Amino acid sequence: METKSKKLKLPQFFKPLFWSYKFYLIDPQRDRERVIINTINYGDWQHWQWTIKYYGRNKLREIIINIPDSEFRGGSLRLISLLLNIKKMR
Description:
Shape: globular
């Protein structure tokens, strides 16, 4: 059971991206849209790599496409669109 609970926690290096949240309550599956939005908007390469590895490229692309583009900062959205080959957003 202990390994399962570890999988549901974000690594500590994500904590600065969630300054307005109770970090210990964030679940990467349940809160995946918030994790992805904050990672794209405020994260660096380390955060992006973890997110791509954790969710997988295809699933991440699918999730991002279904989030309104107004949730993302312009430059960050353009970069992730190029990295994941996203042509159109919601």
